[in-house]
Amino acid sequence: MDEIAIRDPRPGDADEVEALITEHFSEGSSYGVDLGIGDPTYHVLVAVEGGAGPDDDAGPDDDAGPDDGGDADGPILGVMALREFADPGAVADEMYFFDDPDLIPAADRYGHLEMGYVRDGATGRGIGSRLLGRLHGIGAERGVDVLVADSWYHGGADSPEKLFDRHGYEAVHREPIDRPAAECPKCEVECTCEAALAVRRVEGGAQ
Fold first, then answer.
1. Which residues are bridge partners to 42 per DSSP?
2. CB 3.0 to 4.6 Å from 55: which of 17, 62, 64, 137, for a disulfide?
């Protein structure tokens, strides 16, 4: 079994997480990181190398507890977060690509997915699936009935479109990101990037 542990973030993780996220962007871009420590409505998880925990004999999309990493101190390989909201307008205010609450389906409690990145060279190990599975479990425990992700769908091998499609998300709205391939950090011959709004209704949630 590939030894990857999932754990809650620690204050000292901020710089490493920010560097991991920023490496996916064009040169000169930056990303401010909120680790959500002390915020009961914001759930950040990191995947680290080594030290498989007691829950890691489960599948990559199992919904086990949020911290199977114990004292794992290996390099951070991935990060993903879920922020809770009760109002579609608040979700729209938080989203990066879209600001129209009418694009968001009705729900009693929303979970907005963000900061979903895996370190270059660590893709293909099920890290994104494992992080997403843990957050699905947290969302269900917290009464989230619709999960929402405004994502950058691109032409690279690590496009989140593949992850979300595998885990039951529907892209309810897409808009092209118009730029030449030379300015895109992911696409090569032609830039196929899109801003996509992906949603997944939690089983048993409000219809």
1. 83
2. 64
Q: How far apart are CA 95 and CA 112, in angstroms?
A: 8
> What is the per-residue pLDDT across 166-195, written as a single tens digit (0 to 9) for each?
999 999 999 888 878 787 777 878 887 888
Strand-pairing partners, residue 114, are 81
Distance CA(152)–CA(83), nearest Å, equals: 18
Rounded percentage of the chain residues whose pLDDT exceeds 70: 83
The answer to whether the CB of 52 falls within 8 A of the CB of 1 is yes
39 pLDDT above the threshold of 90: yes
Q: pTM of this prediction?
A: 0.82
**Which amino acid, residue 26?**
S
Amino acid at 37: I
φ/ψ region of 50 (left if φ > 0, alpha if ψ in -120 to 50, else beta) reads: left
Q: Give every CB contact of residue 131 below 8 A, 6+ residues apart in sequence.
A: 6, 45, 47, 78, 79, 80, 116
Kindly report the average pLDDT of the chain as a whole number.
84
Closest CA to 44 of 31, 58, 54, 33: 33
Query: Which residue type does 194 have?
Result: E
- Phi, psi for 178 (deg, rounded to 5): -90, 110
